[in-house]
Amino acid sequence: MPVVRILMTLFTGTSDIVPAIFVVLYMAGLFMMFPKSGVKNWHALIPGLREYQLARCAGCESDAPKLAFISLAMIALSIGYRIFRGPDISAEQLSTSDIVMTIVIISLTLTSFLLYIRVYNGLIEVYGVRKAWLWLWIPPYLECIPALIWGFSSKYQPGWKVDDIKAELAKLVHQGSATVMDEGLTVNLKERTVTENFQKKVLLRDIHMAIPQGHLVLLLGGSGAGKTTFVNAVNGYEKADAEVMLNGQNVYTQYDQMIHEMGFVPQSEMMRGKNTVLNTLMDSAKLRLPIDVPAEDLKSRVDEVMEIFGLTPVQNHLVEKLSGGQKKRLSIGMEMISNPALFILDEPDSGLDGVMARALFEQLRKIADTGRIVIVITHTPDRVVDLFDDVIVLAKDSARTGRLAFYGSIEEARRFFGREKMEDIVKAVNRKEEGGDGLADEFVMKYAEVQHG
Questions:
Q1: What's this model's pTM, rounded to 2 decimal places?
Q2: Helical H segments across 235-321, by residue range
């Protein structure tokens, strides 16, 4: 019997019958899951290799060897403990080596738990299912339930395979860069990363473009494609491994100076409702303009901005009494006070009807025509697309990284994607489980090939 229990421990990690049954069921689920991700099914039967491939299927390549090592180490310690010490030892018989081994086992167990949390989160993302599935993966031995369901049901399919198009996409990283312009915005972004659950995650990669002055630019991309991350990297709010140049000046190294050259209008208005329009703009002027600007010049600038945005008739009205369109114009006017060279707006037409949205975008067109660069995120681009010069399309590739799928004129975008509407372009690069066509990788590679020959 001891030999049988040792063999059980070797293949399942436990010598007890009931837990071993759950582990066998778990292995059966992985046996069916692995081929879906391009991994040989028999790898599910081999300790160490099973954990290694599971991490790879979850997109956690760096965790794969760690999990494999911990799995084998735990099995070796368990078998060694049974052979040399026996299964039943009283507290009085514990030696220093026993205590050390116990501490080692506890440390390995905790480390393994943290790694598995990352792997299971990765699997949830790869399969495009709800986060609630995590509660079935975490409890010991219950992970056989989601493994069996995902493995045997054709309904559950991973968004990408381990060794498929990821290898092709990796070849496109850091190929070339945009030439820095003396006038305009030049972005050469290598990577934007964060650390989640002790693991590096790449949010954006290999985005290069040069936008001339006077251009109104549409920024498109599906959920999670990295639009907000991109604009935060461009304006220096969240720095990336990048060089961002605005009119020949480095946004990152000269941030204190360049921050006044950039205006950002978020989706939600950040204004005090009980303040008047005039006082709101005066407060903004005091914050954005140099401290030594005379009071009469501040007031003159505020009057100018109110005139530009049609706010003079309501200058003494409370912000909370304004219409939706007036509030949007006031938000833009607050950023316009410092006369920035770059405007970035996140869904400025949110909550506006077609007529009001059109009027707002016509105002943005006028701002761009004064020589400024205006970049706009909107989920309803087709009703105002004729006002834009260029479009940026970001897409989340099979490695879940935001990539540049296109940058160019509106007409060039239509020819490149073979679609007339901008909303259909977004649908083309969205994942299938998000209602899209799942062509992000195809267009990312196509654009890279066009750019780099």
A1: 0.68
A2: 255-258, 277-288, 295-308
